């Protein structure tokens, strides 16, 4: 889902939807744990396959719990990254599309001057995510400012010459 962010109230509205999705999912999880306390295998299967969660940005769309956990972390990271970019590049409108596919970037300023790739991961090296996002940011035609912004308990340690890499706080 694409979000257009022009102000802090726009960010807050997206955060509110994410919080509601999380509240609904935790409620469903509590019910699941209560109803199947003696069947941990059923609990784990349900978390993986059944639609007891919600899309963090579209409360009309159900999803499995595991997917919501991943998407929720990515969306919150994207919102935090957008806020960070807004401070560095004031006055711009932002197209935010976490986990953009194809050639699109996760965050792009309205004038195309700023692009960012965003992710949340246990380790930024997992599945070569950092390396892939660096390549995607570098490939953004016309952008003067390129970023990879991520949330992880592990910091990336190598230097990056042409792309700013920023680790969001936990």
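^ structure tokens above, recovered residues below v
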């Amino acid at each position: 889902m694409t979000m257009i962010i022009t102000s802090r109230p726009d960010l807050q509205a997206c955060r509110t939807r994410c919080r509601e999705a999380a509240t609904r999912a935790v409620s469903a999880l509590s019910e699941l744990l209560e109803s199947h306390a003696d069947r941990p295998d059923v609990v784990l299967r349900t978390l993986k396959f059944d639609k007891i969660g919600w899309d963090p940005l579209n409360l009309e769309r159900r999803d499995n719990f595991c997917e919501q956990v991943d998407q929720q972390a990515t969306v919150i990271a994207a919102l935090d990254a957008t806020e960070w970019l807004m401070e560095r590049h004031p006055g711009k409108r932002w197209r935010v599309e976490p986990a953009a596919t194809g050639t699109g970037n996760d965050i792009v300023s309205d004038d195309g001057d700023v692009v960012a790739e965003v992710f949340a991961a246990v380790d930024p090296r997992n599945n070569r995510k950092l390396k892939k996002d660096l390549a995607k940011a570098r490939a953004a035609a016309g952008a003067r400012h390129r970023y990879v912004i991520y949330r992880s308990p592990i910091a990336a340690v190598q230097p990056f010459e042409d792309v700013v890499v920023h680790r969001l706080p936990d």
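The chain has two domains: 6-70, 94-167.
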